[in-house]
Amino acid sequence: MILIPTFLAAQQNQKLVSGTVIDATMNMPIPGASVYISSSLVGNQAKQEGVLEGAMLGTTTDFDGNFELKINDNIKTLMVSYMGYETKSVDVSKSSTGLNIILEASSENLTEVLITGYQKIEKRKATSSYSTIDVSEIQQAGVPTVDQMLTGQLPGVLVQPTSGAPGAPSKISIRGTATLNGSSDPLWVLDGIPLEGEDIPADFRDKDNIDNLQSYPIAGLNPNDIESITVLKDAAATSIYGARAANGVIVITSKNGKKGKMRINTNANVFVTQKPDYSKLNLMNSSQKVDFELFLASREDLQYQKERGDVARILNSFDEYNTFQSDGFSAISPEAQNAINNLRTNSTNWEDQLYQMAVNQQYGLSISGGNDKNDYYFSTGIFDEKGGTIGTGQQRFNITLKNNFSLNDKLKVGVALFGNQNKTFSYITGADSYTNPAYYARNANPYLKLTDDEGNYVYDPDLVERSDLNLNYNVLEERKNTSHDLAANSLKSIFNIDYELNSDLHFSTQLGLQLDFNKTEKFSDKNSYYTRKYRQRSQYSTPEGDSYYMPEGGIIQNWNKEAFQYNWKTTANYNTTFNNLHELDVMLGTEFRRNKTNQIHTKGFGFNPNTLTTVQITDDRALENSLFDPYQKGSNENAFTSFFGTASYTYDRKYTIFSSLRYDGSNLFGVNPEFRYLPIWSLAGSWKIDEESFMADLEFVSNLKLRGSYGIQGNIDKSTSPFVLGSYGNVSILPGMNEEIIQALGAPNPDLRWEKTTSSNIGLDLGLLDNRIYITGDYYYKKSTDLIGLKAVPLESGYNFINTNWGTISNRGFELAINTMNVTNPNFKWTSGFNIAHNKSVVEDIAIRKENFKPSLQGYSANAIFAIKTAGLDSNGLPVFLKDGKQVSAVDFYNLEQATDGSQLTREEHRNLYSYVGDGAPKFSGGFRNTFQYKQFDLRILSNFNLKQTVQATPSYYPTLAQPGNNYSTEILNAGTGNLPALIGANSPGFNTDLVYNWYNSYDVGKTYDNLDIWVKDISYIRISSIKLSYAFPRKQLENLKISGLSLNIEGRNLLVFGSNYDGYFDPETFGSLYAQPIPKVISGGFNLTF
Amino acid sequence: MKKLIYLSITVLLCFSCNDYLDIKPVGQVIPTSVEDYRSFLTSAYSITHLNKILTTYRGDELQITPESPGVEQYEDIYTWNDENPSPLTRQFPYGSFYNVIFYCNHVIENKDNIEGDAETIDELVGEAFALRAMQYFELVNLYSKPFNLATAEGDPAVPIVTKYETEVDYPTSTVKEIYDFILEDLKMAENLISVDKQSTGFNYRFSRVAVKAFKARVFLYLGEWQDAIENTEAALTINSELQDLNTDMSAMPSEYNSIESILALETVASFDIATNATISDDLINSYNQSSDLRFDLYFKETATERYRSKKSKDNKFKVSYRTSELYLIKSEALARLGQTELSKTVLLEFAQNRYTPEGFESFKTNIQELDQENLLIVISEERRREFAIEGHRWYDLRRTTQPEITKRYDNQTYTLEKNDDRYIVPIPNDAIINNPFL
């Protein structure tokens, strides 16, 4: 429609060109293919003839693949192109009608160029290690962000979901960890613009990190708008991004309009999130729990919180607790027996109360097209998901506009806008650890009723602050009366100008803007545990009794964060070939970047949601309590300048050497000026062996390339200054005085050096049988020295800790990807992609702290897990330990002595109790992708695996703290058998049991119980992340409806996990986390329609 | 189009990169002006140490029982259990002194670079010297032997730190070196400070009178009696006022806004002292309840006929030096020098403000005939009464007789022997862990 079908110059002699465009493999006509004369040809030709410059001459094929075109007589070649096929030039000088033009599908699905975000490098010249994937191959319905889709799809890219909650990010690490306490997130780049956003917290077993809603860099991007994803892995590929790329770079290339007539694509999916399998948690049911409480009550020695739980309450209300304890169940009154037995039938269905099956929707619409002068891509999308946990969800709205213009032969301009709103909602689960729904479901008594017969909330009698203070928690009330929402609004815009001075030299400049407004609101009604608990903190005593300075009513808290960044880069590119032997590509550029964030946090108390009014706190006591600060503001600004260049030389299409250099400068207030500029460089080379004459006979080898690279990257800690830096505050030293103070920030360190990572990579690309088998293998070694971390210093310095260079970590590993086209029948096709990666990190040097309880990581993996080896139980059910190969009791192991407080071990001896038991990072990880195409049916199976990963469960109970008010895993029923320590009290029978009791109850401050080897195990699993079946209607059937494509699909996600058992937890990925929401199983169905 | 390129290049060159990168973060500062440094030093002044509170538990002024809320934080201090204290025990402060020293060092090190009025700078730097001296005075009295001329050159104390450095060792100095260092600092402070007396509200800052009072105390601890007397006299010429409790019982003389106040900086009491501990029988019995006006002013009776301190955590109870101490130092020093009559005069001048007229008369009669030894005992008892729960007692016990103390706690008797090693508080673990020289 945009194309002008035929354009004629009047004076010229013309000829008719006609023919059919056909797909090479399917032997089917291709409708909608572009047939055109390249504008440069027209321009050159037309100049003399007085034809309008820049006009496009061309047409598109009809439904049968046919076309007809009148062109000037003297035009000799015609271009034919279609998406996914190689563009072909056709000689029309001799015959021009009845042409049969056969288009070959692009020999690999992957693009033939490596897009680094700074430049496009022809694949044959690429020297670095990278992986690319077409998003269409891994697209899944009901997945809001592209990071989750990458799980297991790219070798060396470990993607770990942190929680199944809507909007929860996946933690990505590329080639292991290069830092000990900094962020290990890769840099996300969208069409050349590095994205800003929150770092993903390192520890996702921490409930605060799980409960926080945050806006991550790519959260707003619609996967439908993404064409491909390239992960840059080695130094040769990433060094051009400077210091920020130390963790690797993920380059997102968004879709552009394709030449050809307008295509309208709509897709819709309905996806159903299944209720999670609550039975995975192995909790006691009501009857088991009642028996367990009876057991606790019968044991005189188990005193811990013995008054809790309904059984104890019933016994106490009948005043028969002691009777029961001495004479058993039969001795108590029938009324009490009945009351207790009735509990067994009270089964609250926690699964139904907290979790749901949710029906969700996702819609997308895109309009795209283009011609030689202009291409366009517009899209919009809606994603609406309710979580498997009731009360959680996510909604996203997207609009994307992209337009590229060729103003003339030399000048191209591109504009892109990505706008979205991403809302995540939940309820307040952060009042304390008990109120996280996943955690509460594990701990609440199974017989606890949530509402009484009139529908009033029943408060948990066992969730109390102190024995005399119950602030009344009910999970349903909390869900109803509190809300926690994040609305992230983001606008990213990119403006490109590309100017081609001549065929060798071109300049481009790109300006990217990113504007983010994140609004978080936490509201809790007057009638909520959160509010009650908050108000408790304003309690004070008066002669008349307790009083509170927090007004009655709700609490409203808002966090408004505004972030802005611009990134302006300009490059000059010189590409030339001389003597047909030497190819030279040089790029030079500059980049300026500035970002600024402002955050305002406000709190209102006594909030009434109907009138929107709050009540001022007038009590002076509130001034000293930061919980009641009504207003806080934070601001942060950074600027960066960079100069960079790359040079690549290729000889005889066989040998390429490549080098890049970048200087990064940044604002470092109060930082040694010598650290302002930081050079980052790399050197790489490749040898295309298949081009060698000695390979000529080996026809089955279609591609063979050897690559190698070496480079240095660095990072400087911006929070540490060589000078004494201060921040302002206010203080009242004497009554009635209020003075400004300047408080020294963290300890200055003038000796701080750059954190440096050197990496080397050697790789091989092998294509066999016309690249039907394509193998890429890489081996790498990365060494990060002078890692910056917090180190304890002598207190005499005035500080406890200082940021200093304190460690060295190395990572080595290999990656292997094999892509094969197993069967390529016209009616049946089967392609597979398999990848596997292994990474081994070693902490080579680390400054240990003498007061540490756990051993130093030196010589072990950065994620090493240390545990205390046990050897079963003694006759009293107390754990027996292994020390120097001998079995010893807890008393000997911990060196416990009567009449002392705890262990007499020094810290060093304490550290020596531990043994290394495994690596917390998987030994092997990867994925397997299979696509089957039978006639109109398409079946795709995606899977990912982690092999041999050591994981640590959170103890299912503590032997001294087992109490009737909590529910437990059924494991506790076996306490005292196998490896599971018996439940003990201070007076439990057995030799020295009291010592062991005291140890575990009070003095085990290094938490050795949590680190017993019984909680540790190795797991391996493979997850079938997606099975998708689609049916594409034959074109013939659609023609009459003026539809060019229609497909239907059904998909099941996360349906199956094979491997080690992960009982007690919802998913192997979140093993050990009591707070993670389950990763949802999703069934979806939808269609994709193209006009 | 070429124009566009040239324009871009020109713009790029015009950007001076260092200007572009010069962002001063809002809310952050590298102190430069004297006003900045004042705020910086105020930070140091605002750091409070727990040592006076904890030594009060360690001394003989309080009684606690296992039933007192929060007692687990204090029981091992109370019973001098330094060997294996419970992990819940409050730590004596160590790092916080060096934190203040860090601030003072930074001011002193940069004294020639501070921008502003020379007099104001001198004043500030002088205060930094005095404040630093104060930290070392507390450290040496907590963590090493009391000053003994015979052994001070060998008695180990704590490290002296005068500048901030990373990756250096911190070997300990001797008691002698610390005291020399304190006197050196106080000399600097004297030369630089010109304000005689700070106004109420700012009297947490050092002034000339405060430095003199501090010096008087240092010489008292050193046993340099004549120097102690000279410094009390110098201080008394600036402020010699005493609060006469016969006419004014509105507030305690130790409060920050009392006419007696010289320096109101240190926190001496806490919520737990005031609400969860009671006053020891010994201390209560040392007062003549009917004639000593301080008794009702300092203490309140509980339901169980015990007494609690009225000094609490409130800022208004902050105190370091006050005129009463000058009188008592002077009286003691004179007595030590054998000038008993002069000593008694000074003591009576002070005591007149503390007893009812009848009580004063009998006090006067009682001391008339005392010889040096017994006079010193009376002065010591008077110090004990005057400075109850003011953080003096432990140091006074240490520097004088180091007597045996016995306490009953949880049906057990605990004894601190005469001259017991435990008159020295052990340096906290977290300090030892990080400094192998301790």
Structure in words:
The complex is a heterodimer of chains A (1091) and B (438). Chain A contains 17 helices and 47 strands. Chain A has 1091 residues and is mainly β. Among the domains of chain A are: 14-103, Sandwich (Immunoglobulin-like), CATH 2.60.40.10; 286-346, no CATH class; 869-913 and 956-1011, no CATH class. Chain A has a 22-stranded antiparallel beta barrel. In chain A, strands 10-15-16-13-14 form a 5-stranded mixed beta sheet. Chain A has a 4-stranded antiparallel beta sheet with strand order 3-2-5-6. In chain A, α6 (286-298) packs across α7 (309-317) and α7 packs antiparallel against α9 (334-345). The longest helix of chain A has 13 residues, at 286-298. Chain B has a single domain, classed as Serine Threonine Protein Phosphatase 5, Tetratricopeptide repeat (Alpha Horseshoe), CATH 1.25.40. In chain B, 48% of the residues lie in helices and 6% in strands. Chain B contains 19 helices and 9 strands. Chain B has a two-stranded antiparallel ribbon. Chain B starts with a helix and ends with a helix. The model of chain B has no long low-confidence stretch (mean pLDDT 91). At the A-B interface, β28, β32 and β33 of A face α1, α2, β1, α3 and α6 of B. β32 of chain A pairs antiparallel with β1 (28-29) of chain B, so a sheet runs across the interface.
